[in-house]
Amino acid sequence: MENDTRSKLLEIATPLFATKGFTAVSIRELTDAAQINVSAISYHFNGKEGLYQAVLAEQLAPILQALQAAKSNAALSPIERLTFYANQIARIHAQRPFLARFMISEVTNPTNYGGPIIEAHLSQVYEFMKDTLQEGITQGNFRADLNLNYAAISLAGILNFYFITKPLIQKFIPLKPEANTEYVDHAFHVYLHGIMNHSPSKKLSQP
Question: Per CATH, which fold does 53-195 belong to?
Fold first, then answer.
């Protein structure tokens, strides 16, 4: 029963926080929507701040799981590792339509409660991308003149910008149900072509 209440609060709070923002959502609004006692938020999350942090952690968990899966599979080449991660991003955003809202909100106007969580998450993504790109340079797959910082930031932007701006994009571009996957596949391969080492002396392994 306790787990049911906790899960219900997370389910109710996610769209409210995503669409209205942390400050605009009241405890009364949350408990009325969930049809539970006001004290439940304090009991399960130590207050609205803790609930908000739990929502963010739940939204971001699949991305961190994808990072761990990519890093722990030693059989994957750098190209395959980045491809795997890119494909997971498309799947995750499709399953969590509010994730992009939380990300852009906490990047542009961070709260004291969510800002550090998003910052820690982006730091892990950045380090994964930078390390994988460096490995690809060492193996001769990627261009030796890559600026690792810019290349990592570019890939993160390419993979997430579409989802952040999707509500606007839909106003002037008709998007099919499979657009998430198609966009990531297309954008990632354009990016991959740009960072590849095209030297004829190096035989490249394609994903």
Answer: Tetracycline Repressor; domain 2 (1.10.357)
